[in-house]
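F-box domain-containing protein
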Amino acid sequence: MQKVSAKPFEKEQSTKGKIQLKKSAKILNYQMDHYVNISDLPEDLLLNILSLLPTKDIVATSGVSKRWRYLWKKVHKLRFNDQIYEGKKYETFLHFVEKALLLHKALLASLTFRVGPKCTADDIGLWIRLALDRNISELIIKRYRDHGHITLSRRLCNSTSLVSLKLKNAILETISLPACFSSLKTLHLVYVKYSGDEYVRSLLSSCPSLQNLVVKRHNEDNVKRFIIIVRYLQSLTMYLSPLHYVADSDVYYINTPNLKYLNIKDHCTEQYSFEDMPYLEEAYLDVAFTHSEKFFESLSSVKKLSLCLKKSNKCLCHVQDQYLEGVIFSQLVHLELCTCDDSKWLNLLAKLLQNSPKLRVLKLNDKQNHNVGKYCSSSWNQEPSYVPECLTKTLEVFEWGNYKATFKERDIAVYVLKNSLCLKRLVISPKLNISEGIICDHQIIKEDLASLFLGSSSCELKFV
């Protein structure tokens, strides 16, 4: 390849221009020397690149050159989406899927189907059979929202090769139990229909190696008592649609003794029953069931805790105090507490500070951006009888998002700042609060907090 020269232009350029032109020529020559044709890349890298594309586009690359003609057959991930064929006959899509699965020769690690209303149980059944015959390790089946549910094949019952199974808008009623998913480690059940309470329990008991479980529920799953008993489960995420109708009889039972990660978002169900989780490290809870007797006790080993407690049908202030009594969060170093429900979080904060001797990071935030009146009736009933150990010995970071500068919020800020002897960073994000005709000016808030006495002389104050 011919090198670029700066000489033809030298007579017309100033000294500064010559220097710049030589630099540009040098850069261009470097780029030419290091130019790489995609076909010259190693095969493993090409296969990884192709695996990011829809299968239709992967197969289309077979016409690029002789080298690419059979390359698509070695790709370890295939993704089929019938919406790509929108406007064409659905039979074209069916023929393409079947032919691609039959012609693909290499080990197939992952297979994804995203389908709409034209896809039938027979279609899915055929694809599942072809996939399992290849000893596939990951299978993803998702039906598009607003197109109902897709019934899955009985063939899915017994698969010793599946390591990951992710389902959305599917019906599992026809799958006979007990099944055998001896190698399954990841299971996603998103808006799935079951045949009843016992079906869920039997399904999970068929997964002895399960480590990661995601459950998202809606109002049509036919389950009242959702029982999760999985011995080796390490990660559990649960979400209940706000449109879900919850009866008084609805309840969860969770027995996961090796759990390390817990994430629950459920503003409806009030009856949860937990067994001990001694290895729990992270918990993110946006819930309304804090009166559960073992709720706080089951969290006692957690290291990072995020709590957002919603209003329920019962007044839970005194109940929280009762269940927190004697519960020590001996490993808790990071606490995030939502301030959206003013009837709960004030006293809860006091208890958590008292019972968390190693706390290093405290974050308060109104995630719902609720406006609270300046003279709100809720109160910080009384300051703790003694200064919590975490304030005098370990707390290093204090952040408050959507700080509304109510009298009680200011009282809490004063108390924490005065007693936190090791505090290194204070971050305040004020909120423009218009309530009862009162406007909280950010500059006034900043000047007020900056004037407060700080227990730590090395604390950095930041407003964002």
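thats it. The two ends are 54 Å apart (CA to CA). The first strand starts at residue 77 and ends at 81. bye
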